[in-house]
Amino acid sequence: DSGVTQTPKHLITATGQRVTLRCSPRSGDLSVYWYQQSLDQGLQFLIQYYNGEERAKGNILERFSAQQFPDLHSELNLSSLELGDSALYFCASSGGLSGYNEQFFGPGTRLTVL
Amino acid sequence: SQKIEQNSEALNIQEGKTATLTCNYTNYSPAYLQWYRQDPGRGPVFLLLIRENEKEKRKERLKVTFDTTLKQSLFHITASQPADSATYLCAPDTDSNYQLIWGAGTKLIIKP
């Protein structure tokens, strides 16, 4: 158990809809990362927050947005969903700001867009 | 642009042998590199971190090397076991140092 929790575990929705994925980092970790992993694909970095502020952006679509709240939990919002958005979405946390710190991954949210 | 390459084909190794996985990077020089293990449907799990000034790092049956001349990191599992079967990801840092670049991973299969 990494100490990172993600909800829900599974999400099935239709094209055009909007969903929110939630992540609670390990106790004390200030950095939260969001990743997308499509079937048999590598991890695609989406976005990083550190202590409530956006720190780095990867290949995140404009239809996607995220935020980190004062209690350090984070949410990833996906809107106008398309079939291609079906994937595993992972949240990871680390203690520091830089990529030097090991990342602890949650169990993921499997999103299926029909 | 910064690029990471890992063996795209699955690596089949006989139990008890040493498995060696390769991670090549181009167009930049990372300051450190991390290796993770990922099982199907689960999040990656951190294994080892190696800095550019470290030639080799060990942890139990795991060994990682970092060759800045060849622009390559090798990940070794000695005395491999079927339980070592998983996908292994390498993740060097980027120029920005705020995030990692993730390789596509190499699927390792250890046959009994």
What does this 3D model show about the protein?
- The complex is a heterodimer of chains A (114) and B (112).
- Chain A is built from no helices and 11 strands.
- With 114 residues, chain A is an all-beta fold.
- The mean pLDDT of chain A is 94.
- Chain B has 112 residues and is mostly beta strands.
- Chain B is 0% helix and 53% strand.
- Chain B contains no helices and 10 strands.
- Chain B has strands at residues 3-6, 11-14, 19-26, 32-38, 45-51, 56-59, 62-67, 72-77, 86-92, 106-111.
- In chain B, the strands form 2 sheets. Chain B has a 5-stranded antiparallel β-sheet, with no helix packed on it. Chain B has a 5-stranded mixed β-sheet with strand order 2-10-9-4-5, with no helix packed on it.
Distance between the termini of chain A: 31 Å
How much helical structure, as a percent, in the residues of chain B?
under 10%
From N to C, what is the helix and strand string of chain A?
EEEEEEEEEEE
- Return Rg of chain A in Å: 13 Å
Q: Strand fraction band of chain A?
A: over 45%
Characterize the largest beta sheet of chain A: strand count, sense, and whether it forms a barrel: 7 strands, mixed
Give the oligomer, counting copies of the same chain as homo and different chains as hetero: heterodimer
Distance between the termini of chain B: 41 Å
Total DSSP E strands of chain A? 11
Instruction: Report the helical percentage of chain A.
Output: under 10%
Uncertain regions spanning at least 5 consecutive residues of chain B: none
Average pLDDT number of chain B: 92
Largest sheet of chain B: 5 strands, antiparallel
The rounded Rg of chain B comes to 13 Å
Number of helices of chain B: 0
The spatial strand order of the largest sheet of chain B comes to 1-3-8-7-6
- Kindly name the structural category of chain B: mainly beta
Total strands of chain B: the figure is 10
Quickly count the helices of chain A.
0
Q: Strand-residue fraction of chain B?
A: over 45%
